[in-house]
Description:
- The structure holds 4 protein chains of 4 kinds.
- Chain B has 14 helices and 2 strands.
- By secondary structure, chain B is mostly helical.
- Chain D has a single domain, classed as ABC transporter involved in vitamin B12 uptake, BtuC.
- Chain D has helices at 7-29, 36-43, 46-61, 69-81, 83-86, 88-111, 116-134, 144-151, 159-177, 179-196, 201-227, 238-248, 260-280, 284-314.
- Chain D starts with 6 loop residues before the first helix and ends with a helix.
Amino acid sequence: MNDVSKAVIAVDGAKVSFGAVKALDGVTLRVMPGECVGLVGHNGAGKSTIVSVINGGLTPHAGTVAGDGEQLERYGINAARARGVRCVFQELSLCPNLSIVENTRIMHRDLGGFGWRTRAAKIIATSLDTVFPGHGIDTSQTVGDLSIAERQMVEIAMAFSNAGTAPRLVILDEPTSSLDASLARQMLDHVRRFIAAGGSVIFISHILHEILETSDRIVVMKDGRVVAERQAQDFDHHGLVEAMGSVAKEDAGQHSSGGPSTAPVVLSHKTAGLPFTARAGEIIGLAGLAGHGQTELLLALHATHSGNWLPERDPRVTFVAGDRRLNGVFELWSILRNFSIASLGDLSRRGLILADEEEAKGADWKRRIEIRTPDMDNRILSLSGGNQQKVLFARALSTRAPIVLMDDPMRGVDVGTKQEVYTIIRDEAARGRTFIWYSTEMDEVRLCDRVYVFREGRIMAELAGDAVNEKNIIAASFEGVAA
Amino acid sequence: MSPVLRLFGKPWIWSWLAAFVVWFLTVTVSLGGGTLGLSQAALTFAAFSIIVGIGQMFVITLGPGNIDLSVPATMTLAGTVALKLMNVENGMILPGVLVAIVIGLVVGLCNYSLIKALRIPPIIATLSVSFIVQSAAIWTNRGLRIKPPSLLADFTTSNTFGIPNVAIVALLISIFAWFLLEKTIYGRWISAIGQSMPAARMAGIPVDGTRLVTYLFCAVLASVAGYLLACFSGGAALNMGSEYLLMSIAVVVIGGTAVAGGDSNVPGIWGASLFMFLVVSMLNTYGLGAGIRLIMTGLIIISVIMLAGGRRAGMR
Amino acid sequence: AAMPVSAVAETSAKKIALSNNYAGNSWRQAMLTSWEKVTGEAVKAGIVAAADPFTTAENQATEQAAQIQNMILQGYDAIVLNAASPTALNGAVKEACDAGITVVSFDGIVTEPCAWRIAVDFKEMGRSQVEYLSKKIPDGGNLLEIRGLAGVFVDDEISAGIHEGVKQFPQFKVAGSVHGDWAQDVAQKAVAGILPSLPDLVGVVTQGGDGYGAAQAIAATDRKMPIIVMGNREDELKWWKEQKDAKSYETMSVSIAPGVSTLAFWVAQQILDGKEVKKDLVVPFLRIDQDNLETNLANTQAGGVANVEYTQDDAIKVIEAAK
Amino acid sequence: MTFRLSSDTMRLAIPALSLTLLLAAVFWLQPRAMSYVGLNLLFNLAVPIALATIAQMLVMAVNDLDLSMGTFVSFVACVTATFLRDAPVIGILILAGAIASYAAIGVVIHLRSLPSIVVTLGMSFVWGGLAVLLLPAPGGQSPDWVRWLMTVKPPLAPMAIVASVIIAVVAHLVVMRSSLGVLIRGVGGNQRSVERAGWSIVAARAAAYGLAGFFAVLAGVALVGLTTSADANIALRYTLLSIAGVILGGGEFIGGRVSPIGAVIGALTLTLAGSFLSFLRISPDWQIGAQGAILIIVLALRLMLNRLEKREKRR
Ligand SMILES: Nc1ncnc2c1ncn2[C@@H]1O[C@H](COP(=O)(O)OP(=O)(O)OP(=O)(O)O)[C@@H](O)[C@H]1O
Ligand SMILES: Nc1ncnc2c1ncn2[C@@H]1O[C@H](COP(=O)(O)OP(=O)(O)OP(=O)(O)O)[C@@H](O)[C@H]1O
Ligand SMILES: [Mg+2]
Ligand SMILES: [Mg+2]
């Protein structure tokens, strides 16, 4: 099986470190033609780093890269692309100011010459039609005008598109994080077709069932090493989680099915569809297909209940961002400052920051949600994506605001961490905090006491108690289509 | 890291080094004769750049695109109106200061109202306001130079323990600014806004309020500097602020403040302001013509930023 | 102003515009004030139909060129021009001439042959400063030169005159030279910066508007006050008077009078009236000496500039003299 | 499917409408302007500004800002009025060298990841100094062919209009339609992803700066053609004018969102605003202030139209 001479790409003993962090500590990974390799691991395990090595963006400090049996010296981005290596990155990476066609031009360097627009349009349209049939995306649109799910679709289609050099190895780093179930399904189906036609795929996801059903072989990484590597059928959900080293609390996630809450209403909001209300101590889910107005509702709630001109003594709402690059982290700052920014009011006297209290509170929360860092004074960017997300959680939860707005906050958070956060949320809710939670993952929506289902910017249905299940949500999400 | 090495990691060290080198080169020519004189002159004239530079730094900290081009016009208006109001009477000094501050507040308010109401980039909004403010300055007294009250004139032109009084004022303002930036919630807020406005908003920061205060602060510092400068140079002139436009920006960036926002630094302003004065003195001392002098100034600015820019954005 | 008799019929329907490139100092403000005062009366008396002043937002030749082009469109019969550049406006001036418009330039004159020029001999203004110093200090010594704005014509001319003077009186030496941009505060700053490195000074030669700044910078040191040639600003004259009363300080002061704009106005009116006027006219600069200091100071508005306003008769005299 | 204008079209519609309104106001105040000669007088000084605006726009497309534009154009003007006339070969070499140094500045800014504002601020002193060295006093004379080019009277439309249209079209082709333009804007939009696609960002930035230098050189040459001579301070204002022109034309400071046609329209609008004011005959005290007021009004107009567009979109 692990025959180097046949592997599309074979990385041997790759070591990469960033300062003191050993992102890769001797990783060996081979990808055969006609194979889908699933890559899993906790946040910061080194998955994205090995991806960077394979696509030529990063030269390992030790170890070798070989392709089709030959040692690749001076392996770089262009060499990788010439070998047909394509990549969908964890964060969105299109140019928002360019049209889809122009982005295609950027992605395919050898597409130049007279009439490139026509050719580019054809290439990307063909690919979109193949991967996401019935996508309804116009290729002359500017990427910035697309929804986040549409952008991700374009990126995926871009990776599978062929402008001269056919893609042989496509790397998908958490590609489904912004896609709803049906789009994710289409993509996974395409992956299988691509594999069947002899292509190779490296598939990274924290959504384990996707990995289990799509991959041929699964590689588990932990702390920069490969800790397990087996055929997919030899793993089950539980085994995978165990291999990743996370504490598996299987199915700890069932919503507290009491009767309808009688707690006081803390929030109500008029929307285009059904009215929105929230009671103290409730966990309210916002569900539906991605990009159908859930985030907008959260932003509206935040805007109407927080001041933009005067500082507030007692904030009403607090917000956990999903798109942490755009509206989450402060990149120049330390972890501690990122954590404390929302609760400075409590950590200060007459506008003066009390440094000791800030530090104590930071240390406390670092312990509570296990932020993986030696020092809270390190820069926030030294944390992995998932750990940055934890800091954002801690930032929101450490405020005194009775209402927590969450905009798909678990994007790219590993299973173990998720379970920890779920527990915290339930505890806080039990103490009377209200959570309003937009999620693209069904498991999370099922944790909620009550769920509003969105379609085209309107609230189409309200589900409560036992009615909160996958079938009802999907039914409500597609109501508009059936009508 | 050894302390010396760590010192070199500070963003402001380069402007200080540059200032020192230039000072040294100038002093060597006069064989040490004018050392004290030169140092005092440098402190005096740097003080004005420091005061306006600090205001500009707060605005620049608010993030990309934030810049206040109305500084020169504000200085001029505050100087002319205050001196006209005081009309050479010592008893009117306090009302004079107050009217200068009020002018600063009004200009700052206009600036931010435009930025907010019209959603235009601050660079354009403040430029528009500066035209109007400049007109107002012309209209108020048509360029007549009224002398400052004698007490003020004496205060601004004399020294205390060998240190120019205006430099002491600048030092007090700098300490206040440093304190704001490092120790208060407000300082955290402007830094957060400078790094990412949406993130700041979502973290519950009153973004508009903070930005408004910052533009007010900048305009008030500009008007205070204009007031002091008018008193120092024996009367307000309609063009007295003009060189402080580029100057205020230059001292901020040479001083090591991140142009992309979010990271400011008070000591650097001092180094940069001293440097900007001393470099002109040095080139004048060496008898170089205006052309060569301009070229050298430019090249030195670029070298300083190249030296300082090699490091990655500062750690916290 | 003397009431003219002959001109009324011919020019009463004519419109004259003032194109000014800068309003940011007291000299220009005095110039505009004189213009408004004198032309206001002329319009009221029906000598001309209009005499509108225009100022550009920035001191730039390009903006002034645009302003002149607009004046062409507005249908003025004459343009009185204080130019930002002696040559860069030639294109626009030519267009005005081609449209049949009379262009009279003063102070900042233009070289375009179709325009009239009311010039001040700036070179002589610079040279006479050194000459004066040579009378006061026959032994000579070190001079500090304060220049204007780099790259501007007037600055170059005066400086050339000063250096000519130094050649003529070789006992003097220009020990240092700074740009004061014709502004007190800039001059003060520049002088303070160079002073520590300079030897003893016997005199400071200037271009106007910068003498007081130099005096302040020197007063801040323990140097002996050299003879600073002044530039007719009220604060300069006042300082001079104080020094004169206190320690019989002696100096002189030269500058071009801002009221020269009114002379240009009358010359334009005369040309429109059909008078034959030579293209190049010369106007003397306004010099103040030790003995007429008090009179001039008394006639100068607080914070303003020593000034002379011209009448139609003055203009006729100047025109005749040039013939 | 609702009808939706693309954001690029909207970016253009707004400045175009402001220009039309302003032009209507000018014609109403001064009907004489409504002629071949009148239009030329109104707009010919906008030609160099439009070129400088395009140059600034190219730099802004890669998320930088050029504070040396004004002094650079002045420097080019000085070269044009001296060397390009007296010794054309040397003149052309100097101008080519200037363009090369622009590209080099782009490289330095990128390699050392320096803030463009500071580097170009420094360069503005350098260009200014060189200009003063070349022409300590105003002077020189424009080469005859330049003068001819700027004063030629084409049939149908005056030179100013023809030139503006040509500039807009050429810039549009280069920036919006060509691969190079896409690359440059891509760097402004998401530098990292362009890099990951295997492009050299240094080369892209150098190209953007080099092109900017080229357009700025054209601006300087055109300016001298209009003014017939040069001085070291002749175009200092172009720095702010060009930035304002890009913004008025719908461009943005970051994110690579620019519009060349909009930029040319922005430059024309700014020029026209000045004329409009002088036709209004405001008191000299307030003439400067009125320029500020008109900027504000034009931008308010832009905001109003933006709002309209948003409402349109929501429907
Ligand atoms: N540019 C970088 N500079 C410094 N450290 C880095 C950098 N990129 C990655 N790291 C570190 O390398 C390690 C491996 O990171 P990597 O991105 O490969 O993790 P990952 O498995 O992709 O995590 P996730 O599931 O959160 O995406 C982490 O500890 C991370 O902090
Ligand atoms: N810029 C950086 N500087 C220093 N360390 C970094 C940097 N980026 C990442 N790391 C380190 O690399 C590790 C992995 O980072 P990365 O973002 O790839 O995590 P990840 O595996 O993708 O995690 P997640 O699933 O949480 O996104 C982290 O533990 C972090 O410490
Ligand atoms: Mg990753
Ligand atoms: Mg990650």
